[in-house]
Amino acid sequence: MTLRRTETGGLALIVLMFGLAAWGWVSAGGHGAVPVHWDLAGDPNGYAPPVVAFGVAPIASLLVLGVLLVIPRVDPRREHLLQSEKAYSVIGLAILGFLAVVQVLAVTAALSGHFQAGVLTASLGLLLAVIGNYFGKLRSSWFVGLRTPWTLSSELSWDRTHRLGGRIFVAAGLLCLLLSIVSSGLALLALLLSLIGAAPVVVVYSYLVWRADPAPGRQARAMPSRLRLGVLLAVLGAVLVGAAVAIITFTSPGKVLTGSDRVRVLAYSEPQTDNLMAAYRADDYAAATRDFDAVMRRGLTQAVFESARQTVTRTDGVYLSRSVSEVLEMRGYTTVVYRDRFSSRDIVMSVSFAAASPHQVTGWWFH
Hints:
The chain contains 12 helices and 7 strands. It has helices at 4-27, 50-74, 78-83, 85-112, 117-135, 155-179, 184-211, 225-251, 259-282, 285-288, 294-299, 302-316; strands at residues 34-38, 44-48, 255-256, 319-330, 333-342, 346-354, 361-366. A 5-stranded antiparallel β-sheet has the order 3-4-5-6-7. Strands 1-2 form a two-stranded antiparallel ribbon. The radius of gyration is 25 Å and the shape is elongated. It starts with a helix and ends with a strand.
């Protein structure tokens, strides 16, 4: 098994990724910090040095390629991987291709200040669809595929389980791809729910096929009715729990504050935001970061501040005024969402504060 296509294509992608990393490092000045973590709206909420921001994906790709090339040499079922070399190669290249997309998005987002979350979720959906399309062509192995005790013990269980899993992957991937057009958050939620719901179904299905496998030396047996009921209830419970966790994690926007609670937050947020935006308009980095907490001050360096200010000025014009849209409270933080008026257009701005005194600024971004 040579895997020449995987090796050649993978190395080409990795060279491209390191080239992008070098370009991003030079463009960012090689120092300070650039955004590395983003919310589902594509706004930065975490920072790191450029060498870290641009080096993670290429190094991870090198490790992935190394694993892909080593597995066929150590798998006890090497002959099965040889029989499914095309599927194995395509899946490997699809994973490396996805990491290359992540690298492109990371570099461009770090320099522009906005992450294209929709492109990422669409790429993830496409990756799952490609993997699912080739799942049914994989022969049993110890390292690749849907490995349960029953798929590894029965070729019939392996084949049928991977056909089912492949269809689920394709359907979930295409759903994620289509929903990315509407909302990256909704696409991720749908994908997560699909995979959480599918996992117990696939495991149980592999067991059922294994029991019914008429292979030599085995006697097919029907599953007792009570056990069938227990399995169905377990699957239903897993789906419901997974759905609840996903909904709580991804869709809760926080508590909207009104009345005296809203007034209480604005009493400390407005003076700090007044100072922040006055300093922003005057291009005064020291004044802008006066109320930042330690993490924000380390992350939002003067170079990042000036670069982001230039980007917003170029696209939206000069800052003029703002008005409060809503006030949110969630997990120890409060966030004030503003409608900012710039000379070219109105945009949304959010400023987050620690809920505990002295209520330092913990996040600041334009949508």
